[in-house]
Write a structure and sequence with these properties.
With about 270 residues, this protein is α/β, with parallel strands linked by helices. It has a single domain, classed as Rossmann fold (3-Layer(aba) Sandwich). Helices cover about 30% and strands about 20% of the residues. It has six helices and eleven strands. The strands form three sheets. The protein has a seven-stranded mixed sheet, sandwiched between helices. A two-stranded antiparallel sheet has the order 6-9.
């Protein structure tokens, strides 16, 4: 296994506190309304990209785990499409509690585990057909090599990793300043977020300190290669899935704002 940096536990502890604070803001901003919407049998969080990719790789009857699942609303959508055993993992106690309530309200069975991804129970190894990662998960992970070792260990042979993520080129920009380059694409040290506004509710500030880790596309691809995961799909898109860089969609000279990747365990 890759050696996790000695400071990783401190980063994780700080991010857990930040996400627990954030959960209360999100509860009032959209989750209470989501409790009603999610009961609709037709409810889904999938956009056109996810519908297409999940349609291609297939969901029905498969075991799916979502890492850094937040309140699990995407995973509940997976379950509604006919997946078998679904497991959501998140650092935040409060978001896990929301996920449990949302799945009950949706009338589907989803297992939620409060854990950081580097300390998952060993009994999960080799149990999943799909590992699902989406919207902002990667930036909270301090050790990408160790993360991909864990991903590979969770997958069955011929299981698939599906990532639908914010494009890391956006780490070069401050969304409030537009297309002015603020940081190097090759930055290694984490961004420290202190007293930042919430991305769902800009009127609310999150006082707990959190850490965001920039990773290159190459880090993601090499993580797959190093752990026997063969890339079968990679695409970049001009649409934003983060709710932070929507204004970038209007630029005449377009940036890649999101990407999708599929890799299969051989």
């Amino acid at each position: 296994m890759s050696k996790i940096n000695s400071s990783t536990p401190n980063y994780i502890k700080a991010n857990r506190e930040s996400w627990n604070e954030t959960a209360g803001v999100h509860l009032k901003h959209y989750v209470e309304e989501l409790y009603e919407k999610i009961a609709d049998p037709e409810f889904t969080t999938f956009d056109k990209v996810e519908k297409g990719i999940f349609g291609d790789i297939g969901i029905e009857g498969k075991n799916v785990i979502q890492l850094c699942c937040n309140n699990g609303r995407e995973l509940i959508s997976v379950k509604k499409q006919g997946a078998a055993h679904c497991v959501g993992v998140d650092l935040s106690d409060q978001f896990i509690e929301q996920g449990q309530k949302l799945s009950k309200r949706a009338g589907v069975e989803v297992e939620f585990i409060r854990s950081n991804v580097y300390e998952l129970p060993g009994l999960l190894k080799g149990q999943f057909d799909i590992v699902y990662i989406t919207i902002g998960a990667m930036g909270w992970l301090p050790d990408i090599p160790a993360f991909f070792e864990i991903v590979a260990s969770l997958l069955r042979t011929q299981g698939q990793l599906f990532i639908y993520e914010i494009h890391p080129i956006l780490n070069m920009f401050d969304s409030e300043k537009g297309d002015i380059i603020e940081d190097s694409y090759f930055r290694k040290e984490p961004f420290v977020n202190d007293d930042d506004v919430d991305y769902f509710d800009p009127s609310k500030k999150i006082e707990a300190v959190s850490y965001w880790f920039p990773h290159r596309v190459a880090d993601v691809i090499q993580g797959c290669i190093n752990n026997g995961l063969k890339l079968t799909h990679f695409e970049e898109y001009t649409h934003d899935i983060s709710m932070t860089y929507k204004s970038f969609e209007q630029y005449e000279k377009r940036l890649p704002l999101s990407y999708s990747l599929i890799a299969e365990k051989k």
